[in-house]
Design a protein that fits this description.
- Helix 2 crosses helix 3 and helix 8 packs across helix 21.
- Helices cover 41% and strands 17% of the residues.
- It has a six-stranded antiparallel beta sheet with strand order 2-3-1-9-8-10, with no helix packed on it. A six-stranded antiparallel beta sheet has the order 4-5-6-7-11-12, covered by helices on one side.
- It contains 21 helices and 17 strands.
- It is globular and about 70 Å long.
Length: 546
């Protein structure tokens, strides 16, 4: 895992390597090349050694090309063998060199061959090529001003940031796709690549991956269960490969518990706030699970004093609000795991989105079941007026401003909602392609702020494709989502422990409102406001120091 930056040096801080040192404390380097028209192109990188501990050229240069790479390609070894059969010879045992050679061999089509999380830049043949993984696990921002372009893993590397809010992001309380809070600064979208040619100053963006079309071709319960377990075993196995210690972030829920039932990490990390012991108690579930599987559960118990002390660091690493109270707990989990000398942590992001596991999904799906009879009855027109369409009900649920916020969300989400899909399929699509993005921002920023790499087995593209083929009855049944995942966990650990019987699983909130505003509500408006203010202060300080 690394930090990358480059492009026009005029837009990049002269202190970029230091600003991204947390993303790559083991090696740092820069290469300055020039286009034929004389334009300077900087390629910079900081490296966290995970798979190969020895130093390697950073950035890496060969055959007239230079690469700056952030991420992990889990299938790099079979790809290397395929390239060797075509005559390529390698100097390092790294996925970075495989990515570079794959690009030189196949061009942008190489992206379809990668199974992993990545964001990288390649300078070759008078073109700067930027690419990001399918679901956006690794960040990649760019700024274009006039005829020049620069890129970076984090916003703090860019010069002259100017705040400019985005209405849809204000409504949702997070940023996604190309949106950022700053003028002229965009994010490369998940599953997108960009080509910049200095000769004509042209920038071309292209989506190379989209969420697969739904099929409902898998409806056999026994076959689906075995297929899921096979995929998960492989997805977990390739994500546990590292030359450094690996742990897992474990809650008392289905998602991370299913991963742990497969990988059996020796040590796990769980957050438990004393303020939530009576209402959100993960400790008891995790301890019972640990006794059954025989691993060491380490409980992290952050305090208000720690929050106030680390608040500037939270803002420095996250850089903009993500509409979540999980910023602090994720930072604490990552910090403790790194202090204990772990460098890689597995985590369960993606399961709720792919398998309609959120309570908000269950609420909408239960309602849809209950009113379908009325929709089909003689007063169907009246019922549709009263309850609204599927996308209208989704927008009412998603609006953070109540009914006044619905029209903006409806205008945005309606084109993405399709009558050709079922209600559950539409939910899964929007959750995965939009609402998952801020969670991945948190997982990356707060872990990398502690020089820790987080890997997500559920976001293996094969599992994403598998989920798109499931019949709705395998996602949601008897008022609960993630039906197939629940069956998978029961098949591995039985159904006598609390995790498998738990009806409601909370997220990973922190009692920020209690600490700062003396409120027990989970409204995030005030939290977002003070976090954005501190983010801006931290970004300004970074620019002043550079």
């Amino acid at each position: 895992m690394c930090g990358i930056y480059g492009g026009s040096p005029d837009f990049i801080s002269g202190d970029a390597a230091r600003l991204l040192l947390h993303r790559g404390p083991d090696q740092q380097g820069e290469i300055l090349v020039h286009a034929r028209n004389g334009a300077p192109i900087l390629i910079g990188q900081t490296r966290l050694s995970v798979v190969y501990k020895k130093d390697v050229p950073t950035p890496m240069e060969r055959d007239g090309a230079v690469i700056s790479f952030n991420g992990e390609i889990y299938n790099w070894q079979p790809l290397r063998r395929e390239l060797e059969a075509k005559g390529w010879r390698f100097q390092t045992p790294t996925d970075t060199e495989v990515v570079l050679c794959a690009y030189l061999e196949w061009g942008p089509d190489c992206l379809q061959r990668f199974n992993g999380m990545f964001a990288f830049a390649i300078w070759h043949d008078e073109r700067l090529f930027l690419a990001r993984d399918r679901l956006g696990k690794k960040p990649l921002f760019y700024v274009q001003r006039g005829d020049r372009l620069a890129f970076a893993s984090e916003l703090k590397v860019f010069r002259d940031l100017e705040l400019e809010e985005v209405p849809i992001c204000q409504a949702l309380e997070f940023y996604f796709d190309e949106h950022t809070p700053f003028r002229d600064v965009k994010s490369l979208c998940p599953g997108e690549y960009l080509v910049y040619t200095p000769a004509d100053h042209r920038v071309r963006r292209q989506r190379w991956w989209r969420f697969p079309e739904f099929e409902q071709s898998i409806d056999d319960e026994k076959w689906a269960l075995q297929a899921l377990l096979d995929l998960l075993h492989d997805a977990c196995a390739i994500r546990k490969v590292a030359d450094v210690p690996v742990t897992i972030f474990l809650s008392g829920g289905i998602d991370s518990s299913l991963v742990q039932a497969i990988v059996r990490c020796d040590v796990s990390y769980t957050i438990q706030f004393s303020e939530f012991e009576e209402t959100i108690n993960e400790r008891d579930y995790v301890f019972e699970f640990a006794r059954q599987l025989g691993f060491e559960p380490r409980i992290v118990t952050p305090t208000r004093e720690e929050f106030l002390e680390t608040f500037p660091d939270l803002a420095r690493f996250i850089e903009f609000p993500v509409g979540s109270f999980s910023v602090f707990p994720l930072f604490c989990l990552s910090r403790q795991a790194r202090r204990d000398r772990f460098v890689v942590a597995l985590s369960g992001e993606g399961a709720d989105e792919l398998f309609t596991g959120y309570y908000r999904n269950e609420l909408l799906l239960r309602e849809a079941e209950q009113v379908q009879h009325d929709f089909d009855g003689p007063y169907g027109t009246l019922c549709r007026r009263y309850f609204g369409s599927g996308v209208e009900r989704f927008c009412r649920m998603a609006s953070r401003q109540g009914l006044p916020g619905v029209p903006l969300l409806h205008a945005f989400f309606s084109p993405q909602w399709s009558s050709e899909r079922t209600f559950a399929q539409n939910l899964s699509l929007l959750e995965t392609t939009v609402f998952l993005q801020p969670l991945l921002v948190m997982a990356d920023r707060l872990a990398m702020g502690n020089s820790l790499e987080v890997r997500n087995p559920y976001l293996d593209y094969r599992i994403v494709e598998f989920s798109s083929k499931l019949a709705d009855s395998l996602r949601y049944r008897n008022g609960q989502g993630k039906w197939l995942l629940r069956q998978a966990l029961r098949s591995l650990v039985g159904d006598e422990i609390g995790i498998t019987r738990r009806r409601i699983k909370h997220g990973l909130p922190a009692p920020v409102n209690q600490w700062l505003f003396k409120s027990s509500a989970f409204d995030r408006k005030d939290w977002n406001h003070i976090l954005l203010r501190e983010c801006l202060r931290q970004l300004a300080e970074a620019q002043d120091r550079s």
